[in-house]
Amino acid sequence: MQSVQVSSIDPVGGVTRHLEHCPAGMQLAQRSTSTAALPRVVLSTPPPIAADQFWSLEKQSAYVATIRDAIQQLTAAGIKRIHMVLAAPSSLSLRIGMAYDRRLSAELVVYQYERRLAPPYPWGILLPSASVPVPLVIR
Questions:
Q1: DSSP 3-state assignment of 67?
Q2: Which residue has the higher pLDDT, 90 or 11?
Q3: Which of 7-11, 28-32, 121-125, 135-139 has the lowest mean pLDDT?
Q4: pLDDT tens digits, residue range 26-63?
Q5: Residue 111, SS3?
Q6: Rounded to whole angstroms, how far apart are CA atoms 136 and 33?
Q7: Which of left, alpha, beta for 130 (phi over 0: left; psi -120 to 50: alpha)?
Q8: DSSP assignment letter at 56
Q9: Cβ neighbours of 67 (radius 10 Å)
Q10: DSSP state, residue 134
Q11: Where do runs of H (alpha helix) occur along 18-118?
């Protein structure tokens, strides 16, 4: 099984938001998120990235654990809101959503990719959390 690599998670003094860039089985253009003025954590897999790379339960479970651990580390570092850009098969996206601990984790905004738009991530969903009782659309 191929491993998932996580760039360093270095808390920046006074920063309460973070961008998590997660290309899982699909190429995600980093330039499309490069305008975000947020510290960034990048989860990556060794090339080549292929659409069927994360179909097995074993691979999906490992990737979900990596994302969950990164969210926990960011929360422990004092990050209050994580902006996640995720390019993944729908089955993996659902598993990530099920693993998100809304009681103990930072707020999480997951963005929708729209290839034809600029910026390509025009909106996201702020997931329910300890401080957000219902999901909200963020533009």
A1: helix
A2: 90
A3: 28-32
A4: 444 444 444 456 677 766 666 655 656 667 888 889 88
A5: strand
A6: 21
A7: alpha
A8: S
A9: 24
A10: S
A11: 57-76, 90-99
Report the greatest alpha carbon distance in the chain: 40
Beta bridge partners of 80: none
Name residues whose C-beta falls within 8 Å of residue 117's C-beta, 6 or more positions apart in sequence: none
Mean pLDDT, range 52-75, rounded to an integer: 84
What type of residue is 88? A
Strands (E), 27-67: 40-44
Q: What number does CATH give the domain 5-138?
A: 3.40.50
Q: 79-110: b or e for each residue (b if 16 or more CB lie within 10 Å)?
A: bebbbbbbbbbeebeebbeeebeeeebbbbbb
Q: How far apart are CA 23 and CA 63, in angstroms?
A: 11
Q: Name 36's bridge partners.
A: none
